[in-house]
């Protein structure tokens, strides 16, 4: 039996009731407890990367074999363009150190900086995943 992210995980990410959260790079290795907690916190199912309307936040499941810093930078820019007024919460989730697919936090921070964003905080998202919050800039600011 998989260990879940635990109660309150969705709100720990800063997501609230009514928000639409877009998910990128979903695969069979993601933590279902994180997904369920976010859906419970928002009251909405996660939307996939093909969603073509504005959203309020983003979860990106990022592993070493998903690409390098340049690819992550591009994905962050794409994710930000889908956010309402260009602002909102972006979380990059990566396997914890010592697990297959781990990405160094410094690599995520560099990608965010290159995209004109900033890594602001980190959390243990789930037993096998770490999360880094990326702050976006609102359009017109």
Automatic annotation (TrEMBL):
Matching Pfam families: DUF3052 (PF11253)
Domain of life (superkingdom): Bacteria
Name of the protein described by the UniProt record: DUF3052 family protein
Organism (species): Georgenia soli
